[in-house]
Design brief:
- It is a single chain.
- The chain has 313 residues and is mainly alpha-helical.
- It has 17 helices and 2 strands.
- The chain is 71% helix and 2% strand.
- It has a two-stranded antiparallel sheet with strand order 1-2.
Length: 313
């Protein structure tokens, strides 16, 4: 009688442990690490022209006011202590170097720590000017810091040559799972907020959005094409609702990538918020597995061999 509850607890713990810490392919972490570094570096470059206005003592956001508001709270920002234009520029350069090192896999754990401090620092100091994608980058900075970053696809591995051993490719999946859950929460929370909005429910939202200053093409057409606008508005909600589920299932993963990429590339093309589009696609790569990576590598090799044959022929 005592053994059965104990066995059930042991089995439940084993399943929970397997769920969080089961094996994953380290190459997937490498892909996320590289893509994250690229989009975070693009975000830093976009912030560079505004660094004096946002982060210096004489900028538009008063440091003393922020310190009073955050007094007694566990907030941190390097920009509370570095306030001169030269110092702020130096912080940007160090953060950019850390992102490059993270992408190349050079001292990746230390680089990930610096990247997390960078995202914590600038989002706290200039929080009135940040966007949703800044919060996403900050969150994924933490996920990468606690993830097994592994040895595949690093500068050291490339210089050394050869391939990673099979044992080096098997690591804990907990970091990828955190990233997957974060993407699902992001989409589902977005849908939850949108379905109570009268303009989303009426199918008119995209008409107003495409006529706003966010749009690249604020043409009267978007005020008249009511049926098309309604279809696109509701399709956006459906895509955001189902994409995480499609990505979790290997059989439907390609469809999830297709729908999500189509959504965000469309946003990229027709709106001014291009950073949101490329950063929102970054978590998709956390849903890949070893089979997906092997399939992509085989396809790349076949295409390379085909081009080589054409050149030789």
């Amino acid at each position: 009688m005592i053994g059965k509850p104990r066995d059930r607890c042991r089995n439940a713990w084993s399943r929970l442990e397997s769920f969080w810490f089961g094996a994953a392919d380290a190459r997937v972490y490498a892909i996320v690490r590289i893509v994250f570094s690229a989009v975070a570096l693009a975000n830093l470059v976009d912030l560079w022209p505004h660094r004096i206005a946002f982060f210096t003592e004489g900028g538009m956001i008063d440091r003393e006011t922020l310190l009073r508001v955050s007094e007694g709270k566990p907030y941190f920002s390097i920009f509370y202590h570095v306030t001169s234009p030269a110092g702020v520029s130096a912080v940007f350069v160090v953060a950019a170097a850390a992102l490059v090192c993270l992408g190349l896999g050079v001292a990746p754990r230390f680089a990930a720590l610096l990247v997390l401090l960078w995202h914590l620092g600038y989002t706290q100091r200039a929080f009135v000017a940040i966007h949703g994608w800044d919060i996403m980058l900050r969150t994924f900075s933490f996920f990468l810091l606690v993830s097994p970053l592994g040895k595949p696809w690093t500068l050291a591995r490339w210089l050394k040559g050869g391939h990673a051993r099979r044992a080096e490719l098997l690591v804990s999946r907990h970091g990828l799972l955190l990233m997957q859950l974060q993407l699902a929460v992001m989409y589902w929370h977005t849908v939850w907020l949108k379905v109570v909005d009268p303009f989303w429910r009426s199918g008119e939202f995209l008409s107003f959005f495409m006529l706003s200053f966010y749009s690249r093409f604020p043409y009267p057409f978007f005020a008249k094409a009511t049926v098309l606008i309604a279809i696109l508005t509701y399709a956006t909600l459906v895509i955001e609702l189902i994409v995480p589920n499609l990505l979790w299932c290997r059989r439907t993963r390609a469809l999830g990538f297709l729908l999500g990429t189509g959504l965000h590339l469309t946003i990229l093309l027709v709106t001014q918020i291009w950073l949101f589009s490329i950063i929102a696609l970054m978590p998709y790569f956390a849903f890949l597995d070893g089979h997906d990576v092997d399939r992509a590598l085989r396809l790349a090799r076949r295409r390379k061999n085909g081009r080589d044959h054409e050149l030789l022929g």
